[in-house]
Structure formats: structure tokens, C-alpha cells
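PROTEIN DESIGN WORKSHEET
SECTION A - STRUCTURE
LENGTH: 206
C-ALPHA CELLS:
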């Protein structure tokens, strides 16, 4: 089947992407790893001994780098609807975290403790209909924020991918009601033409 011009352009861009090549060379599962590395260097979100929750974790690009950061005294709890190959130091829960059974499993894994950081690199399955995709992406980050409000300890941090467009400004305002400091980051590994940015929120009010 002949590829469309758009998919061919994406494929060419992907194959020639320096971050894709770097991820392959460094043994990372995803080019997205470099986005979190840059954010963490700037904002010091994740430290040794932290409990970190990674939402929408598959294929594991973020969990893979977070596990060594938190070390033996820290914990990484990852969740995704899709399967994910195991990572040392990461507890993976497959399923939709908005479903009660999956949510309860996450709470059980936390063992009545609170998380220091909630991270989310979730994105909806792209339909190509911009308005629908934007609503889908805002819905996902709202779910991630709800989870953060439920599981974070006071003073905790939240980092999530969000797409600029309808609902974006309102979402940022909503995040600001729960955190003392909110920043917007556009990491170098984020493609310039992409509307994605990362919201970094620190000092959860609890």
C-alpha cells in the first residue's frame, strides 16, 4: 500500500531524527526520555529516594530513566492501558487507571503512602481531526491531574505533556489552583512544530 505524503514525511523525519538515533545508541526505549532528562535537569523534580508515579508509561522511556534516579530507596509505579516490558525497579500495573479496580491496585502498591512526583507523557490516539484530538489530549491531562491530586504528598510535584489549543489556558489555570509554582517547558527533544509543551508544577498544596 502506498504511503501518504504525510506519513512518508513523518517516517523520514523519524528515521533521521537525531534524538531517535541517540535513543537507539543510548539504549533508551523512547526519544521522549530526553524530554524528561532536560526537564529534570532544570527543575529538579525527581531525586534519590522519591516515590514516582508514571502515567501512560508504555513503552517505558520515562520509567527507564526515573528508576536509576530514585535508586534502591525510591519507587517507580508505572501504569498504562498498553503492555510494557519489565524494568528493574519499576512496578507496572496494566489497565485504565480511571477504572476502580486499576486505581485500587495503584493505591495498594503505594501501600497507604503518598507519591512525591506524578509524571505523565500520555497522548490520545491521533484521529487527524484536530478539534477531537485536542479535546482528547485535554481530557487525558485532566485525568492525570486528578490522579496527582489524589496521590501526591503536600509539596509534591507534577509534570505532564499538554497540547496548546482549546482548553489549554483553562487547564493551566486549574493546575495553578493546586500548586505553588507552575512552569511551561518546551524541551529541545520536542519537535519545534509540535504543539506539545510540558507543564511542570511544584509545591502541591495538598
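SECTION B - SEQUENCE
RESIDUE ASSIGNMENT:
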Amino acid at each position: 500500500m502506498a504511503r501518504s505524503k504525510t506519513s512518508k514525511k513523518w517516517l523520514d523525519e523519524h528515521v533521521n531524527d537525531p534524538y531517535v538515533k541517540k535513543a537507539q545508541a543510548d539504549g533508551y526505549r523512547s526519544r521522549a526520555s530526553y524530554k524528561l532528562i532536560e526537564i529534570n535537569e532544570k527543575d529538579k523534580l525527581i531525586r534519590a529516594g522519591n516515590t514516582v508515579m508514571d502515567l501512560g508509561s508504555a513503552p517505558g522511556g520515562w520509567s527507564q530513566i526515573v528508576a536509576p534516579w530514585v535508586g534502591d530507596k525510591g519507587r517507580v509505579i508505572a501504569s498504562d492501558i498498553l503492555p510494557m516490558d519489565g524494568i528493574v525497579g519499576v512496578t507496572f500495573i496494566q489497565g485504565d487507571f480511571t477504572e476502580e479496580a486499576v486505581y485500587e491496585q495503584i493505591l495498594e502498591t503505594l501501600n497507604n503512602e503518598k507519591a512525591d512526583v506524578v509524571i505523565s507523557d500520555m497522548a490520545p490516539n491521533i484521529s487527524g481531526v484536530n478539534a477531537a484530538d485536542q479535546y482528547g489530549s485535554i481530557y487525558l491531562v485532566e485525568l492525570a491531574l486528578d490522579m496527582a491530586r489524589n496521590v501526591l504528598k503536600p509539596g509534591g510535584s507534577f509534570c505532564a505533556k499538554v497540547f496548546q489549543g482549546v482548553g489549554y489556558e483553562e487547564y493551566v489555570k486549574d493546575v495553578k489552583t493546586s500548586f505553588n509554582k507552575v512552569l511551561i517547558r518546551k524541551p529541545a527533544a520536542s519537535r519545534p512544530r509540535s504543539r506539545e509543551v510540558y507543564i511542570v508544577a511544584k509545591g502541591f498544596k495538598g
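SECTION C - NOTES
The beta strands are 51-55, 75-80, 90-94, 115-120, 152-163, 179-185, 196-204.
Helices lie at 5-16, 18-26, 33-43, 61-70, 100-110, 130-151, 168-176.
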